[in-house]
């Protein structure tokens, strides 16, 4: 099993709430030439801080998600480098999960080697997709025996009259390249003035003849020859335009429950300029060539995509480069005409009459097996309909009535449901307990627990005090937690847990997973020592977009599918894939939708077709 697979498995366990640290947390970090730091707090839309530039070479990556950075709730975040989207470097494997309650108190370090280019980073947790960005790495100083100066050129743009003069203004854009140590600085001199550092296109509005000189120096100290360009500006009909256009992108299409675009996504760009007017709009898809934008860009290739965009006005002012990221997945079968199912659960401490003491919490659960739930709404005591995003605490003493409904992504609406309840006087505590889960035991190199895993649950409440802690093991009935639970059954396990205080406040249900394997001669037994370690399940060249995980014995999903084995017919191979994936769903390795994606890839592959056409 590769180190990369072990690190990925460790990150998955930590993301699910288990107290398991990634390999970087316990390994000594060698001092690097530079340190790049990311921080996060309780915000799921952006990192608190992140770098934008770096130099090539050995680098210490620091990711801190702690109380010191503003995270008081114990929220998990990851710092994950993009390893697949075209247009970015994929040579630094960074996938760190951190929380204030982990063994490092949320601060982790990892040493990598960066190379010139762009890197994209993001938070891999569901619902945190807005936490993303990119940074640019340039060649560091002293990088080799560079004796070649950079190349620098000027481009004059603007509205020209019949004589070639620029009307109202001209924009001077300088570009410099250096294949060795990299460009260090670019300078220009306008009409014999002082040499000035070039950072953005220079707008010239003074009527008359002009001469611009320019030069560049690389990081090794090599200076280019001095270039020059002349041009003339004449009076224009309008005022001076020095403001760049504004350009925005809107991604539209049918989305699934995870925010992925089903079948295709359409990206529309809109540029405005109140001065000279928009001259051109351009886009770059997945690191390809810059292309003139004329109509919405439709992207139907499954996978993650990044679209950069920019605009220039008629005065030569260029907008900042923007970007939009999105993911396209394959379309599922059939039309959805079935409405979602929605139900309400009222939780809290009840007295002998069934009334809730002090407060009650209204939880709404909606499911839809077709297009997925789009929205859930509730109406409390005849008030306005409100979007449901989290359990609704109710503390007002008296009788209450809650109505609720749900709509799926195909527009099907559920019937309106209702539940009534009563609240009587309590102590005023409305804060639920805080819960955590730890799994301990001897682990092998696949992070599985050998022979036994012990689950310890912890709950604290600073108000009325903890009343009860409950857990559910592998879908069994909820049970009262009184002492650590020893799990010895071999296989994958799921533990759900929750707690309530004496005022009836109920903590959100949380989930953790782990695997128990039978002990042998030593840790790290591997049934498939030469595993297929591709990141997703690929069959006959068709990518299912399903993660190629270890099934618990050292074999990956691709290993047990065995696409390179001999099959008498294509039909027999598809039957084999159906049987294998059905067992993986039963064992908790795959979900039903992911099984369907793998079977679809098998059906569309040519495995078994070259042996015989007979069924």
Automatic annotation (TrEMBL):
<dbReference type="InterPro" id="IPR058094">
    <property type="entry name" value="Ig-like_OmpL47-like"/>
</dbReference>
<keyword id="KW-0186">Copper</keyword>
<protein>
    <submittedName>
        <fullName>Plastocyanin</fullName>
    </submittedName>
</protein>
<keyword id="KW-0479">Metal-binding</keyword>
<dbReference type="InterPro" id="IPR028871">
    <property type="entry name" value="BlueCu_1_BS"/>
</dbReference>
<dbReference type="InterPro" id="IPR013783">
    <property type="entry name" value="Ig-like_fold"/>
</dbReference>
<dbReference type="InterPro" id="IPR008972">
    <property type="entry name" value="Cupredoxin"/>
</dbReference>
<dbReference type="InterPro" id="IPR014756">
    <property type="entry name" value="Ig_E-set"/>
</dbReference>
<feature type="signal peptide">
    <location>
        <begin position="1"/>
        <end position="25"/>
    </location>
</feature>
<keyword id="KW-0732">Signal</keyword>
């Amino acid at each position: 099993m590769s180190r990369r697979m072990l690190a990925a498995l460790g990150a998955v366990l930590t993301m699910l709430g288990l107290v398991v640290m990634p390999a970087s947390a316990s390994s000594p970090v060698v001092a690097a030439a530079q340190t790049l730091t990311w921080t996060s707090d309780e915000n799921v839309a952006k990192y608190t801080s992140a770098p934008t530039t770096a130099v090539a070479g050995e680098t210490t990556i620091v990711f801190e998600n702690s109380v010191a950075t503003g995270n008081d709730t114990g929220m998990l975040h990851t710092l994950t480098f993009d390893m697949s989207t075209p247009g970015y470097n994929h040579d630094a494997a960074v996938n760190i999960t951190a929380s204030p309650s982990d063994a490092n108190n949320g601060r982790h370090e990892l040493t990598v080697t960066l190379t010139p280019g762009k890197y994209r980073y993001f938070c891999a947790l569901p619902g945190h997709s807005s936490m993303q960005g990119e940074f640019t790495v340039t060649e560091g100083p002293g990088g080799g025996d560079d004796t070649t100066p950079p190349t620098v050129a000027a481009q004059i743009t603007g509205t020209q009259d019949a004589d070639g003069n620029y009307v109202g203004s001209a924009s001077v854009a300088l570009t410099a390249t250096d294949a060795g140590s990299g460009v260090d600085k670019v300078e220009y001199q306008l009409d014999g003035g002082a040499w000035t550092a070039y950072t953005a296109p220079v707008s010239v509005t003074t009527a008359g003849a002009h001469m611009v000189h320019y030069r560049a120096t690389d990081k090794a100290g090599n200076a280019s020859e001095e270039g020059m360009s002349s041009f003339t500006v004449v009076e224009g009909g309008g005022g001076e335009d020095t403001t760049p256009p504004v350009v925005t992108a809107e991604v539209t299409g049918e989305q699934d429950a995870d925010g992925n675009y089903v079948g295709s996504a359409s990206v529309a760009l809109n540029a405005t300029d109140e001065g000279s007017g928009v001259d051109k709009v351009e886009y770059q898809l997945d690191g390809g060539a810059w292309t003139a934008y004329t109509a919405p860009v439709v992207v139907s290739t499954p996978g993650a995509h990044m679209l950069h965009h920019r605009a220039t006005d008629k005065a030569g002012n260029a907008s900042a480069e923007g970007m939009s990221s999105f993911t396209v997945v394959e379309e599922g079968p059939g039309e959805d005409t079935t409405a979602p199912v929605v139900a309400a659960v009222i939780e809290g401490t009840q007295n002998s009459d069934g009334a809730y003491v002090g407060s009650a919490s209204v939880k709404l659960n909606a499911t839809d097996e077709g297009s997925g739930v789009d929205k859930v709404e509730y109406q409390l005591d005849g008030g306005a309909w409100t979007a449901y995003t989290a359990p609704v605490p109710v503390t007002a003493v008296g009788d209450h009535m809650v109505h609720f409904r749900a709509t799926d992504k195909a527009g099907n609406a559920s019937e309106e449901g209702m539940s009534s309840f009563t609240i009587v006087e309590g102590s005023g505590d409305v804060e639920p307990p805080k819960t955590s889960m730890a799994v301990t035991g001897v682990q092998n190199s696949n992070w599985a627990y050998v022979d036994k895993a012990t689950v310890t649950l912890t709950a604290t409440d600073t108000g009325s005090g903890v009343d009860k802690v409950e857990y559910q093991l592998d879908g069994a009935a909820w049970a009262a937690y009184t002492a650590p639970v020893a799990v010895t059954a071999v296989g994958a396990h799921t533990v759900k847990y929750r707690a309530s205080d004496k005022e009836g406040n109920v903590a959100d249900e949380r989930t953790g997973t782990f695997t128990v394997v039978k002990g042998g001669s030593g840790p790290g037994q591997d049934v498939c020592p030469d595993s297929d370690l591709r990141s997703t399940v690929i069959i006959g060249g068709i990518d299912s977009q399903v993660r190629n995980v270890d099934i618990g014995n050292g074999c990956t999903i691709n290993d047990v599918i065995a696409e390179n084995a001999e099959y008498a017919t294509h039909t027999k191979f598809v039957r084999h894939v159906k049987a294998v994936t059905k067992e993986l769903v039963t064992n908790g390795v795959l979900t039903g939708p992911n099984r369907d994606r793998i079977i679809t890839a098998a059906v569309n592959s040519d495995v078994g077709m070259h042996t015989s056409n007979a069924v």
